[in-house]
Amino acid sequence: MSKDQDAALLEDCKRGDRKALDSLVRRYERQVFKVAVRILGNRDEAADVTQTVFMKAFENLHKYDAKRRFFSWIYRIAINESINQLNRRKNADVLQEHLGVSSDRPDNQFENDQMSSELRWALDQLSSDQKTVIVLRHFVEHSYDEIAEVLGIEPKTVKSRLYSARQKMRDTLLSKGILEA
User: According to the CATH classification, is domain 113-181 in 3.40.50.12280?
Assistant: First the structure.
């Protein structure tokens, strides 16, 4: 779908057209979910985040800058919501640990055949900025320019963050004996 088609659908959404809203959700839902699941590592949380992303996006359509691509705007919301969910999870884990409650329930375990638990663990050791660029580049397969647009940074900054993130993941995996030098 082109930028012009998105713009037309967005205008229809602003006028209350449910079909236009459904079209935009169908267009971007899978990609938003994919970003969220890669950042969160939990399909249930990613589904919740995906719903929240679209709810927030359509509540705030009046804030959307039509000069930018819609996918960049919605991805930015998805990344922010995923990071917020990670922070909520960390706070809940600290509380559960303090109260002596176990969070190792089967429904909270990451179920993804494409990524080993070691790689997931190494990814979790990264900062939010580093994790975001790794996910967008290697799992969502965006170009440097697309990542730069989504994050509102320069492509050279994307490359720098990717380099740092890859190095940190490599060092983390080496230090745990998961990867050999």
Answer: no
